[in-house]
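Hi U.,

Before I forget, here's the chain from the pilot set. I'm dumping it here mostly so it's searchable later in email.
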Amino acid sequence: MAVDPTAAVGTQGTGSTPSAQQKATLNYDNFLQLLVAQMKSQDPTDPMDASEQMAQLASFSQVEQQIQTNTKLDNILASSSLTQAASYVGKYMQSADGSVGGIVDSVKIYSDGIIATTKDGGKILVQAGVSISNSAPVTPPEDDGDTDGTDSAGATDGTGGTGGTDGTSGAGNTDDSQSS
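Structure:
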């Protein structure tokens, strides 16, 4: 059994308005009914030109094919949006203005865009300027401006300091130049 990969993808609609394809089908049927009625009621002494009938039928068929092509393109775009949205889950995202950021927990697709929801409940509109990465950015430890090798909390900040007061250099080696 062949499966159409875009057949399962659909857009949410109200259900009360017919699709463009349904409208075209109704109009195509109406066109054929009008054509038959026109043929029945034409003047037998001055019949309608057959090439004119064929031109009308051909132009209407082209419109119908265009509508079907547009419907298939809409399905492809919807499928692409779903694939793109699914790729955001589990990644770090930051909004364009930098006000919201976090690991994406879920995404919701609307007709005018994609909204990503972070694990902490923040909502981000996926648009130009949004930053996406595999993990959250690492912030360096805060430097308090001193040179003792510790940050403001007292933890070693990796700067090495200028030397120890216990007879060792900042690297922990014994300084032989000092005497006891």
